[in-house]
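Sequence dictates fold. Next comes a concrete instance:
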Amino acid sequence: MREYKLTALMAATSFLLCSGLMTNNRQMYWMASVLGALMLGAYLLVRRGALQTTVQRHCPTELMEGETVDAQVVVATRARWGLLWVKAEETASAGLAVEPLPTEQDSPFAGVMHYRLTALRRGVQRLGPVYLTLSDPFGLFMRQERVDDTAEVLVLPRPVVLPRWSWEGGGRGRLIASTMHGRRGEGTDWHGVRPYTPGDPLRRIHWRATARHGSWHVKEFEVSQLAPTVLALEQAPTWRADGEAYPDFDQAIRHLAWIILEAPRQGVSVILVGSGMPEVRLTPEHYTDPRGLLRLLARIQPDADHSILDDLPRLIQQYGERYRIALFVPPQEYAAFHTRVQGYQAQGYAVEVYA
């Protein structure tokens, strides 16, 4: 359609100009000049407007995996009065999904793009560049332009329960003792009752105290039965890769997020270590900002230059007497890690492997 309009205008201009030359009619000269100036102005408007555009995004800088929000891209140009029409198209990295939303405006060339943004995968994701389609009001000339304006969105890992995880045991000899006496859960030394707080397991409910006080109360156990835990993450690039993504590694991060956020409710202190990062001792101050812990986990990548197995002797020597050590490793390497830790388990150390 655009080509037809332009061809018709050019033919009309040529006809008026030739007719004016043949008949020496000045009115035809003016009409041809007006049409020529109209086409030239439309061309220059699109040409120069493409060099004077900026974009501005309205979207959050942090999202949780699976979270969906509404966002928009606004294109600003120096051409005013609606003479330059702009259509924007947002792009994103593989960890984000962009779904354009229908608007109430009659024309898509409004300079504003409304879209639905969904976080698919944890980590630092990117929005941009923005692809623009510029047009004059008559639709005679169009120009495609790419604006290399990018923005980062940090996608936080979604905590996922680790089915085989138990809070019992830890320290040299304590893993064997716990298996001999059965599952202890929070511990066997009853300390008293306290009011229920969100997140407390239902199995802790003290029914007599609940009936007596008229509000939910739970049993409180001595936390000394629960040894602190060292979460050791394999960060060597041996995880199963799917293009640029590591699905198994991301799932391990989700399990770690659940353990770390659940630990204070269980009264367990946690140390997070990896083969490519300094250890992080999680204190009560850390838990005042749970999203801060998730930000830490969101940025971890499997890019270490050595395996966590190389650090295992040091971890055993440093923490093995008092701590429980949980190794999070790729599924395809579970057998190798399990064989390696069996010697430490035979000595009574609480070393476990999760894949």
